Structures are given as C-alpha cells and as structure tokens.
Amino acid sequence: MKVLLPLLGLLGLSTLGCASAPAAPFDTLKNANLLAFRLQNYEPPPPVQGAAAPTPQQGMIPGLPPEITRWAQQALPGLQQFLPPGLIPGLGAAPQPQQPPQPEAPRFPMTQPNFRILAQTQVLDPDLKEQLGKLLGDPDSFQADHGNCMYAEMGLSFTSPSGGPPNDMLISFSCNQVDSRTFAWPHPNRGMKPDTVKQLATIVQKLWPMG
Known about the structure:
Oligomer: single chain
Radius of gyration: 20 Å
Strand content: 15-25%
CATH class: Alpha Beta
Structural class: alpha+beta
Strand order of the largest sheet: 2-3-1-5-6-7
Distance between the termini: 61 Å
C-alpha cells in the first residue's frame, strides 16, 4: 500500500498535466507564426432602387443587424476599437457615409463567407501567443449559448514552425461565438463565456495598442 500511494499520486499529477495542456491545434500556438486581423463584420447590401428603407426596431441602429447593434452598445473598452467611427453617438468621430468595399479589397479567410480586412498585425510576443493558446485551447472558455449569426470582427491565422496548412479561425464578438475554418474545432461548444470575452478584450488592446 505504501508503494501504491506514491504511484497513484504520480499518475494523478500526470493526468492533471495532460488535462491542462491546450487542445490541438492551439497547443502549437506559442511557437507558431501568427497573424491577427481586424475585420469589417458586416457589409450592407446595395440598396434596391425604388425599395422602401426598412423600419429599424426600437433602440436599434438603422442599417445594422440587431446583434451588432446590441454588441456595439455594450462593447468592452478593449473591443470598442472594432466599432466604426460614429456608430454610437458620442463615441469617436462623426458618422461618415459608408463606402462599399472595392472588389479587390483583401479579405479573410480565403473560404466563403469572408470579411474585409481593415488591419492586420503579426504577433511576435510568445507570451501573448501562449495566452491565446491557453484561452482558445481550453474547453472551459466556451459555452453552448451563442448568437445564430457570424459577423466576425477578428480573425486569426497561424501555422506551425514546421510548416503545413494555416489554421484559420473567426471570432465574432457581436454573435458571441468562434468559427474554425480550416481545422476541426476541438471543443463541444463555440459560444464564448463572459470571462473569455473579457480576456480577449485585454489581448486585443495589446495587439492594437493604438486602437
């Protein structure tokens, strides 16, 4: 019995260590080549000549889906930089007429649907990449509840140092969910928990400190 107890203790520690490791492919993120993208989450369809403008719901912003409106009104400070200037009265510059994106505008990811890239940055800080890996690689960061939409404000693309195809994923704060586009999602759920959103907001501030 005296010999068995230490063995059981070692097995328990080994199991604990495996359980705390990020799920693949996020276990490679610390040493991966990582690009982060700021994306235009929604592009209004071109107006139909002669068609009446839709009547917005109470409290909604005309021309925007209700999910984006609600998120814009409640966005955390670290995520407000994803909001177009003038979207919320008193926040940022005065509203400007929205110009339709040019057909050659760069987009992410390559597969449809994709989103117009507003800015991108290469993430070089290994500590920041490790934070993302632990957060996204932990099944406890996610929940079943999320919006029935995908308006992505952020994208990530990372490749292993040894090469191979990129791992592309979308993050939608307005729909409160993530979408893996080129790899199998390793967790049962895709909806982000409130604490996950808060941690991502802190990471966003580090990725784009100037807003």
